[in-house]
Design goal:
There is one protein chain. By secondary structure, the protein is of the alpha/beta class. It is built from 14 helices and 13 strands. The strands form three sheets. It has a seven-stranded mixed beta sheet. Strands 9-10-8-11 form a four-stranded antiparallel beta sheet, sandwiched between helices. A two-stranded parallel ribbon has the order 7-12. Strand 3, helix 4 and strand 4 form a beta-alpha-beta unit. Helix 1 packs across helix 4 and helix 6 packs across helix 7. The radius of gyration is 23 Å and the shape is globular.
């Protein structure tokens, strides 16, 4: 713990530059695999800070790695910078005011996520240089977390093969350690090919692909009664076959997201969904093709690393919010429902308090809980011991993927939470670098939690990063 104040000071020295990076990324919100400006901003910062840079990681134009140091263990910090479609919002506004109607917005706080991870990596790099300690620190610039599974492609390409420990975080209502696992998921396009015909004159000659999409939906909906309660299936019709009801639709396309608590359950559920699609094609005498666009594994938590990060958080304490931060958070909370606010407390199984911003560190718990969502950090966690922080960047009650997240993304309270989390990540990385016992315990825990299972990528062999196909998520 004696080295923590030094690395925290190194974070503070460069906070302004990385707050500026976060704000610039907020101003250029780009979605899944299209993060050209955001990746360039991170690359420029890596160059400015003296990292060695690898571009086009896993054949992804917006994925990059910066490395510094020599010899010793490899500590990785995972960053993201992708936005969400349709969440454009004016910064600091306390009502729904899109900057551009229908445009993108950072509704999951990834402008903060990437900047804090790179700040933590930079502070650790500076610490290595000042102390002359052997070791390597890496920053992984990871695009397309929102539905594109870039980290899964990066894992498959071997980008993490020599990493000892991986560290990340996520913007949150609270400060603490993420101790929840996630759902494995797979994103699949189903295309149906039929036969066009005049829908009134010769309907018997037509074979409707739209009928196939609708019948598939019926079949999947009936299947929901007979699958594990923690599984989830969602879909969106991408192409309904045109706008002319008097033409039998010769082509239709639907995208499904299939989620399950673990990889084995995911693979089994995918096969059942495919059988439903095949049945829909059989009933409509159409032809079906399926294409896996992306897939991610369930997250594996790591007790030794979580406990180490918990100790750092408790040593640092919560972010120091001022009265202006509290006043802004209260304004944001006025736009939320009581259910929104209750949900934030319930997700952490805490008694609700009437406070707008967190003033405590989440207590540890031994129960592995299911957070319900999915993340491609899961794939990293299968091959490298991984730990994640929750960073206090949001008014309590704010739900992710909403305009309220975007509105807070450039606020002083978000910046303070981001910098505090960077300090926690940097100190956790330093603890792992200096303690062979901690690294060994982390690997033992990972192997125990994998229960003898080898990592199997949820992305089929031969599938490539869907850079073109994922322009709309």
């Amino acid at each position: 713990m004696s080295n923590h104040p030094l690395v925290w000071d190194l974070v503070e020295r460069k906070r302004d530059a990385f707050v500026d990076l976060s704000d610039r990324v907020w101003e250029t919100p780009e979605t899944c695999y299209m993060e050209t400006q955001s990746a360039a901003a991170h690359r420029q910062m890596l160059a400015t800070q003296g990292f060695r840079i690898t571009d086009n990681v896993a054949s992804i134009p917006t994925a990059l790695v910066g490395e510094a140091g020599d010899g010793g263990p490899v500590i990785a910090f995972l960053g993201e910078y992708d936005a969400l479609a349709g969440l454009s919002q004016k910064s600091g506004a306390v009502a729904h005011e899109p900057l551009i109607a229908g445009a993108n917005g950072h509704g999951c706080g990834h402008n903060l996520l990437g900047s804090a991870s790179l700040l933590a990596a930079t502070a650790m790099k500076d610490w290595l240089e000042q102390t002359g300690t052997p070791g390597r620190v890496r920053y992984y610039g990871c695009p397309a977390e929102e539905g594109g599974a870039a980290k899964a492609f990066m894992v498959r390409a071997g980008a993490f093969d020599d990493v000892d420990i991986a560290i990340s975080w996520h913007p949150s209502n609270f400060a603490g350690v993420q101790r929840e696992t996630s759902l494995a998921n797979c994103r699949i396009d189903f295309e149906f090919f039929g036969r066009a015909a005049h829908a009134a004159a010769v309907p018997e000659l037509g074979r409707s692909s739209l009928d196939a999409v609708e019948l598939m939906s019926v079949g999947v909906n009936y299947m929901r009664e007979h699958m594990h309660s923690d599984c989830r299936i969602h879909y969106a019709v991408l192409d309904s076959g045109g706008i002319s009801p008097n033409v039998v639709q010769a082509y239709a396309k639907v995208r499904y997201v299939v989620r399950a608590p673990d990889l084995s359950g995911l693979f089994a559920l995918i096969e059942r969904v495919k059988k439903v699609a095949e049945g829909a094609a059989l009933m409509t005498e159409t032809r079906m093709e399926s294409t896996v666009l992306a897939g991610v594994s369930n997250l594996i938590v790591n007790t030794p690393l979580m406990d180490a990060m918990q100790g750092v958080w408790e040593s640092l304490g919560p972010a120091a919010f001022d009265q202006a931060d509290i006043a802004f958070a209260e304004q944001i909370r006025a736009t939320l429902t009581p259910e929104d606010i209750a949900a934030s407390w319930n997700q952490e199984r805490l008694d609700q308090r009437d406070i707008p911003l967190t003033d405590f560190i989440l207590p540890p718990h031994n129960e592995v809980r299911q957070m319900g969502g999915s993340t491609d950090v899961g794939d990293v966690s299968w091959v490298v011991p991984t730990v994640q922080a929750y960073g206090p960047t949001l008014a309590i009650g704010t739900q992710l993927h909403t305009w309220q997240v975007v509105a807070q993304g450039q606020s002083p309270l978000a910046h303070k939470g981001m910098v505090a989390t960077a300090k926690v990540m940097a100190a956790t990385g330093l603890a792992a670098l200096q303690s062979a016992d901690l690294r060994e315990a982390a690997w033992v825990d990972l192997k125990r939690r994998r229960k003898g299972q080898d990592y199997i990528s949820p992305i089929p062999e031969g599938a490539e990063p869907p850079v073109a196909a994922m322009t709309v998520k």
